[in-house]
């Protein structure tokens, strides 16, 4: 199917059980894939273009990477297809205000990166970004959510969720705005039915159990104020959170995944090594209804020399 478009259209579609975890060593000529549905792992020769790069995201079979020269590419590690994007050196000079983190975008056929900002979104500091239904959804450190539409000549923006100036309430537990801003990492995810989720993760998970206060999930509800309502059960869905990508899966026909859970690929965990406290990065899974989290069994595949794992949806196109 990957030979050419004619062969691809002539053959029946091949359903590849996904998602996978991509594990890459810092100085390795190979990469390992771990299939979550089948619980099988296998090794690929690492493409030359993927050696020594920084991984910044994954979507629909493509990896977004940049190298030490700040050259940016989209690469399919299975087919070796590559799309070159403008270099980060084309980013315009700008001044950060109060540690703000700006977002930049490049369009197909363009030769430079452009700052994504409007009058109403200047000097915001963003924590996560997600593409859904033709728009880019971005969440700030204040838990504001903006939807940017880049289909026109100039970007347009819609306010999806306003700042949680008084904090958030997860059932009977209130989180002040200062803790939302400084203590919790924020992620966006969207289900196949279009539901928008906000996930808060305590900055460092502790071996002294934080219970459900460590990882909490909210669902966007525009009919109420505040617009985030606490989620106690995801049903047959689970959320996979990773490096600049989030995946929602149905676990009904997915024997390799646990239902009603949130998986993280890079969570800092405070633990003890040889009797001494230490922080390590781990794959963790949180049971939403039970309010408990634990390190995932996939950690047995991790080695100290590996880069952070990446959720990967295989594609031969």
Please provide a written account of the structure.
The protein is mainly beta and 317 residues long. The protein folds into two domains: 84 residues, Thrombin, subunit H (Beta Barrel); 214 residues, no CATH class. Helix content is 4%, strand content 44%. The protein contains two helices and 26 strands. Strands 18, 21, 22, 23, 24 and 25 form a six-stranded mixed sheet that branches. The radius of gyration is 20 Å and the shape is globular. The protein starts with a helix and ends in a 5-residue tail after the last strand. Keywords: Signal.
For the largest beta-sheet, the strand count, sense and barrel status come to: 6 strands, mixed
Uncertain segments: none
Total strands: 26
Helix content: under 10%
Broad shape: globular
Number of domains: 2
Secondary structure tally, helices: 2
User: How large, in whole angstroms, is the Cα Rg?
Assistant: 20 Å
Percent strand equals 35-45%
Written as H for each helix and E for each strand, in order along the chain, the element string is HEEEEEEEEEEEEEEEHEEEEEEEEEEE
Distance between the termini: 8 Å
Structural class: mainly beta
Average pLDDT confidence is 84
Protein name: KIB1-4 beta-propeller domain-containing protein
Domain KIB1-4 beta-propeller: 33-270
Keywords: Signal
Organism: Musa acuminata subsp. malaccensis (Wild banana)
